[in-house]
Amino acid sequence: MAVSNIRYGENVTKEVGMDLQNLGMKNVCVMTDKNLAQLPPVRAVLNSLIRNKINFSVYDNVRVEPTDKSFMDAIEFARKGKFDAYVAVGGGSVMDTCKAANLYASSPESDLLDFVNAPIGKGKPVTVPLNPLIAVPTTSGTGSETTGIAIFDYEELNAKTGIASRAIKPTLGLIDPLHTLHMPERVIANSGFDVLCHSLESYTALPYHMRSPCPTNPIERPTYQGSNPISDVWAKHALRIVAKYLKRAVKNPDDREARFSMHLASSFAGIGFGNAGVHLCHGMSYPISGLVKTYRAKDYNVEHPIVPHGLSVVLTSPAVFSFTASMCPERHLEAAEILGADIRTAKIKDAGLVLADTLRKFLFDLNVDDGLSAVGYTTADIPALVKGTLPQERVTKLSPRSHSEDELSCLFEASMKLY
Amino acid sequence: MAVSNIRYGENVTKEVGMDLQNLGMKNVCVMTDKNLAQLPPVRAVLNSLIRNKINFSVYDNVRVEPTDKSFMDAIEFARKGKFDAYVAVGGGSVMDTCKAANLYASSPESDLLDFVNAPIGKGKPVTVPLNPLIAVPTTSGTGSETTGIAIFDYEELNAKTGIASRAIKPTLGLIDPLHTLHMPERVIANSGFDVLCHSLESYTALPYHMRSPCPTNPIERPTYQGSNPISDVWAKHALRIVAKYLKRAVKNPDDREARFSMHLASSFAGIGFGNAGVHLCHGMSYPISGLVKTYRAKDYNVEHPIVPHGLSVVLTSPAVFSFTASMCPERHLEAAEILGADIRTAKIKDAGLVLADTLRKFLFDLNVDDGLSAVGYTTADIPALVKGTLPQERVTKLSPRSHSEDELSCLFEASMKLY
Predict the structure, then answer these.
(1) Among A133, A162, A184, which Cα is nearest to A300's?
(2) What ipTM goes with this model?
(3) Cα(A357)–Cα(A368) distance, rounded to whole angstroms?
(4) Distance between CA B148 and CA B381 in Å, rounded?
(5) Confidence band for B2, pLDDT divided at 50, 70 and 90
(6) Does residue A381 lie in a domain region?
(7) What are the pLDDT digits (tens) for A7-24?
(8) The CATH number of the domain where A72 resides is what?
(9) Do the domain assignments include residue A150?
(10) Between chains, do A209 and B18 touch, taking CB under 8 Å as contact?
(11) What subcellular compartments does it reside in (chains A, B) (predicted)?
């Protein structure tokens, strides 16, 4: 169980200037994206910095669903700025970009691929000290403020990959629920699906004592340790909040209780999966977003086609959990029950089907597109989707059930239509 | 939510040498008590240090229920040894003593009272950097491996007090459930009551947004923040484990599932109360143990009279929760339900009585002494017990219900007999 330091409360964002002053920081980089740059969360951060007389530069060029190129642009900015601290204000894209900027500015001689997960990158361990990074999440999905993960789209391979190291975990997450009030309907839905899958995948991930290889020295343990009694607490708690509040948060932007609860659930699930890991939904999602053709998700104000991360993750969830259930059926049934299924007469051998049906109903109620076909894929794309999944070993190897390429094909095939 | 770094698993103790080597440590102090010095947990630590060629000195003079004098003895040892790291192997007494030794060896000019909580001590903030401390708990109660708290008996005042600072929180807790197998019956019972009260008190503590004064600068926030949505998760989860496993763990030393679960529950409750705080049961417990006359608890191999901490905390719990219930009756009822009460027909106004009755039955089933009278107190002692509670403001001010001296007297009076 690695550490995550978060502070929750309305208006905690206003404290960021004092936090930086307490840390003795004098030259701060504020990272965000162009949409957010004009919105209250960024204004609250800048006002706090001004009030506390802290010099800062704003980088608002973060790409929503970042790429290696957009990472490099932020890294160059950070390297030139010689900042002593960072504040990331945004969703997962902003926080992940800021983690990368901090890492590579602290290690100016390193190439991007040096710290990227093997086999795509070299997967070198991070040994340099990083500067403080305070994360202020404005979506309710990624949990990136609690994790040592930074994901980007490696354009050459048309697939997402990332950096995973406890060293890049933010120093502090400021969880200010007021920031959720500006989120459009589909953004809250899709980011909520990310929380849903973080919870379900980390709860059903390979147990920590069955993971291999088992390094003899604790320092060699991966960031993702497999499901364990500590991450289980967070996974189930976050799942209960999703079950209770996600529909309300999506359907009514004025339902503060629901939106505030989802904001915390995002961090909770982050602490869980940031230690346990995720598996097939996430592993398969990276090519689904990476290979996007023309699909443009509603409510995302960006200039490029996009299958938002949370949507790309959840579309395969019914197929994935049907497939994995045989390895830990009790956990799959328990998850279905938390999500509202009546499991009193369910048979243990049907656990996968029960959870899959529960998820389909949940997604249907939330107007989710009808499967991969609805976001532009046909069966002809399956080989490319499988090929993009294979390098995602860091997560797919945490699947409780091992899988062949043919089985991955079947999972994509079964995800073409949901209803 | 401050951070706690724990690692759980059978035999994780064996990794301590590698952890210290990874940290570059060369001269390590191992702290324990005389009973434990001969037992497997300490042997496992020493073997690991030898295997990893780390120089160490053993201090086995920790007093069970430490005092200012026993703290000072350990501090002198630490100051002379010029250690670069510490390993504490034991229960709360050992871990707390080791935290103090690390703190005052790192601040050699400081007097003991400098960092002790006001009003007994000066309550100075800790600004010196401490050395790494790895905690290996061998009881299942204190949660001290996750907290920034060190408690001792200040003999001049006949009352317990302590040091509370995030700075003294252990670097890492190694939660090795195998260590619970050697615990005698009453030790597992009494340490389990500590978990029970950590959970109940932190769940019912004054909510974080109602605590005052509310410092404008986050650095001035106290270690104990009041109940909050994060500590609530830990409190309830730990309480569920206590409800399910404590009786089994006490009654059958071979019930590994129960003993292992209680070991984790102790850490979970620690993360909860270490952030939220405890209140009246703990505040009132300090004079109950501090003023002990001749009572010698079964299964404690010590040379002095002793009311073990967990017992001193739980004896007032029926009276305390009857008193506090009116401020958050739903939480009191919920706790009673988790502990096995049928609350379907319970009235909200009876929440305190329902929880108190549930606790009395729980304690009776576990052969707990019948109240303060059974550990040697009479009504004539009440003024002294109240006087010893008054300086425990750090915790008592987190009670959801404010209280006069007369009300404290009534709580002690009501705790003389339980059944």
Answers:
(1) A184
(2) 0.82
(3) 14
(4) 32
(5) very low
(6) yes
(7) 888 999 999 999 999 899
(8) 3.40.50.1970
(9) yes
(10) no
(11) Mitochondrion
- How close is the nearest chain B Cα to the Cα of A39, in Å? 24
Reported as a pLDDT band with limits 50, 70 and 90, residue A4 is low
Residues with Cβ within 8 Å of B70's Cβ and at least 6 positions away in sequence, in order, are B61, B62, B63, B97, B152
Is residue A1 one of the residues assigned to a domain? no
If asked whether residues A165 and A289 sit together in one domain, one would say: no
A1 has pLDDT over 70? no
Q: Are A245 and A268 in contact (CB under 8 A)?
A: no
Q: Write phi, then psi, for A141 (nearest 5 degrees).
A: -150, -50
Domain membership of residue B246 as a residue range = 184-414
The residue from A179, A207, A230 where one domain ends is A179
d(CA B227, nearest CA chain A) in Å: 12
Q: Are A18 and B219 in contact (CB < 8 Å)? A: yes
Of A19, A218, A233, the CB nearest to B19: A218
Are residues A72 and A200 both part of a single domain?
no
How much of chain A, in percent, has pLDDT values that exceed 70? 99
Q: Do A5 and B3 touch (CB under 8 A)?
A: yes
Which CA distances in Å does A358 have to A239, A295, A336, A411, B174?
A: 13, 26, 6, 18, 39
- CATH number where B204 lies: 1.20.1090.10
Inter-chain residue contact A230 with B1, CB threshold 8 Å: no
pLDDT tens, residue by residue, A237-277? 999 999 999 999 999 989 999 999 999 999 999 999 999 99
Let me know if residue B1 belongs to a domain: no
Report how far Cα A193 is from the mean position of its chain's Cα atoms: 10
Tell me if residue B131 falls in helix, strand or coil: coil
Residues A100, A206: one domain? no
Domain count, chain A: 2
Domain limit, last residue, from A157, A179, A201: A179
Task: Output DSSP code: residue A247.
Answer: H
Q: Averaged over B264-268, what is the pLDDT? A: 94
Distance from CA of B7 to the nearest CA of A (A): 6
Subunit contact B4:A2, Cβ cutoff 8 A: no
The torsion angles phi and psi of B189, rounded to 5 degrees, stand at -65, -55
Q: Are residues A325 and A277 in the same domain?
A: yes
Are residues A157 and A236 located together in one domain of the fold? no
Residue B3: pLDDT band (50, 70, 90) is low
Chain centroid to CA A78: how far?
23
Q: Which residues of B touch A (CB under 8 A)?
A: 1-9, 15, 18-19, 22, 208-209, 216-219, 228-230, 233-234, 237, 264, 268
- Chain B closest-CA separation from residue A234 CA (Å): 8
Cβ contacts of B209 on chain A, cutoff 8 Å: 9
